[in-house]
Specification:
Elements (H helix, E strand, L loop, with lengths): L6 H22 L4 H11 L11 H21 L3 H6 L1 H25 L4 H12 L3 H10 L6 H30 L6 H38 L4 H23 L3 H13 L4 H26 L3 H5 L1 H25 L4 H11 L4 H12 L5 H33 L2 H7 L12 H6 L3 E5 L3 H12 L4 E5 L2 H9 L3 E4 L5 H6 L5 E6 L4 H14 L4 E6 L2 H9 L4 E4 H14 L2
Parallel strand pairs: 1-2, 1-4, 2-3, 4-5, 5-6
Helix pairs in contact: 1-2, 1-12, 2-12, 2-17, 3-11, 3-12, 5-6, 5-8, 5-14, 6-8, 6-16, 7-8, 8-9, 8-15, 8-16, 9-10, 9-11, 10-11, 14-15, 14-17, 15-17, 16-17
């Protein structure tokens, strides 16, 4: 006789089916699909009428979702990307986390919460969703831009801080059982940190060598199934062993498993194998989070929900913008980063659930965090749109724009006086990323005078050390173009990866010097047609130029 009660299958079926329907609706309404997944969890959760999935099974499935989410973060963790923007990403992320945590503690103190609860609450509000932000950057074609690298570096720092916080929460919870003395606090924290360090050392010394070797060994069998199984076994095995042997969280174990596999030459193949299962369990993770949410909190505690939204949308944005401007980056960067960070997601859920598990956070507190996540993720696309409109409006107001242009006046934002005087018939290159780097090398080989404009201050510093004429700034700003000696330029090459920014640079250059030759990199045929209609002197489309170069080579035979 076949049993009709199959709670595991029914929970997965309900989760995937309702998540698919709600995800489609959310996408059609131009919200993030994550909003749909969270709403799906609310629909099949115990706080709404109708079908109810098994909450205990959903919780276990969400643990697997957390594991694969963190494994994916580790696979994409790049020290190189972080080092490129470390001067702004590290202090920026730390200040922003501190500001949001402080605001969370202050708000919770008015509600009569303890300091420990306030810290967990504030930390949960301080970290943005990697999934939401990476998808937004990809949608706006910003992943390869300087601003995109800053945001990604910022996310990496946030993730590292949250991983450390996940280790410390159990130690903080143990303090209550240790006579609540200073000695108890220190011993618990040091013990937790010691176990984490021991695990990290083990992974760096043993895992860094063993896991890449294992993948290469399995790859030589030429069995696709075995390779896929090896990736999943490593992710889940390391996470489980980390929890059992070292007492650290599944999340931390999975994160380091991903980091160590990244050291392998087969890391890309491993990521491709993990992605489908990671996406599937990530959906179940968000659904399970939605099942925990009690929508009644919005009616019962409207002022508290409003306070959470203000902290996420306003408090975090102001803190991020302020530090970016203080570090003399353009207003465009400040607006983009602050818009991207004005939401919370997966780490917030993990932190909130851990806080509830260790009695450091009430279920009402978790509901407030979930309400903040649901609303902020829903509004995030609008924030990106608003940030662009604000930037355009300020660009039309020179007096206001000059107030935000804090970079003008520092040494990296202008050419040395003697250089500006001696340059003649130069070419300006806007953007020194993956494409711009090759352009500058070719121009230098051809002995063509060049001035590079890029918003990455570290990159500009390195270019100057190599003898390039380079300034840090926003090439859409007329004042920055004047600092680059556009009056002596015969041409400007636009090599930025953001199509919107490229169009603004073309407009600004034509306005400052109408007769200047304009050469632009296009990303697709639609963009190419736009620049042709704008009478741009040369528009280069990568795939088309590759085809032409190959045909030219074949014709030379």
């Amino acid at each position: 006789m076949i049993p009709h009660e199959l709670p595991l299958i029914s929970t997965i079926t309900m989760g995937f089916t309702v998540a698919f329907i709600c995800g489609i609706i959310a996408s059609k309404l131009r919200f993030s699909p994550i909003v749909g997944y969270l709403i799906a969890g609310i629909i099949i959760g115990p706080y709404t009428p109708g079908m109810v999935a098994n909450a205990e099974i959903a919780k276990e499935l969400s643990e697997i979702g957390i594991l694969f989410l963190m494994f994916g973060v580790g696979l994409h963790f790049s020290i190189k990307d972080l080092m490129e923007v470390k001067s702004i990403a590290i202090p920026g992320a730390i200040v922003q986390i501190a500001a949001a945590t402080f605001l969370g503690v202050v708000a919770s103190s008015f509600w009569g919460w303890s300091l420990a609860s306030g810290l967990v609450f504030g930390l949960s509000l301080s970290v943005a969703s990697t999934v939401v932000l990476l998808r937004a950057l990809e949608q706006h074609n910003l992943l390869e831009s300087t601003d995109g690298h800053i945001v990604i570096g910022w996310l990496i720092v946030e993730d590292i801080v949250m991983v450390l916080a996940l280790v410390l929460i159990p130690a903080i919870a143990e303090v209550g059982t240790d006579a609540n003395t200073a000695e108890g606090v220190l011993s618990s924290l040091f013990f937790a940190i010691g176990k984490m360090i021991l695990f990290v050392v083990f992974m760096v010394v043993v895992g860094r060598r063993a896991l890449p070797w294992l993948l290469n060994f399995v790859a030589r069998t030429r069995s696709r199934e075995l390779f896929t199984l090896a990736v999943f076994a490593v992710a889940m095995g390391i996470a489980f062993s980390a929890a059992k042997l070292f007492g650290v969280s599944f999340a931390l174990g999975a994160f380091f498993a991903g980091m160590m596999i990244r050291e392998s030459d087969l890391s890309r193949e491993a990521a491709d194998k993990a992605l489908p299962l990671q996406d599937a369990f990530a959906v179940l993770f968000f659904v399970s989070v939605g099942m925990l949410f009690n929508p009644a909190i919005i009616v019962e505690k409207p002022l508290e929900v409003l306070a959470v939204i203000v902290i996420i949308l306003v408090g975090k944005s102001i803190a991020a913008s302020a530090i970016i401007l203080l570090f003399k980056y353009p207003l465009k960067t400040a607006l983009l980063v602050s818009a991207g960070l004005a939401q919370i997601g997966e780490f917030s859920f993990i932190m909130a659930n851990l806080g509830v598990a260790y009695n450091l956070l009430s279920e009402k507190g978790r509901d407030l965090i979930l309400a903040g996540a649901l609303i902020s993720i829903s509004l995030n696309p609008a924030f990106f749109h608003i940030s662009r409109r604000v930037y355009e409006w300020i660009g039309r107001k020179p007096n206001i724009a000059s107030m935000f242009n804090l970079g003008v006046g520092d040494s990296l934002a202008r050419l040395p006086g003697d250089k500006k005087q001696t340059l003649t018939e130069l070419v300006i290159l806007a953007g020194h990323g993956r494409v711009g780097k090759h352009i500058s090398e070719n121009l230098q080989s051809a002995n063509i005078e060049l001035v590079v404009i890029d918003s990455n201050r570290r990159r500009i510093g390195l270019l100057r050390e190599r003898g390039f004429n380079a300034i840090a700034g926003d090439a859409t700003n007329e004042q920055v173009l004047n600092e680059a000696a556009i009056d002596k330029a015969v041409a400007i090459i636009v090599a930025v990866p953001n199509p919107f920014e490229a169009r603004k640079i073309v407009e600004a250059a034509r306005k400052v010097k109408p007769g200047i030759k304009v050469l632009v990199r296009a990303h697709n045929e639609e963009e190419e047609k736009y620049f042709i209609n704008q009478d741009v002197d040369l528009t280069v489309l990568g795939p088309r130029e590759i085809g032409r170069r190959m045909v030219r080579y074949l014709n030379e035979f």
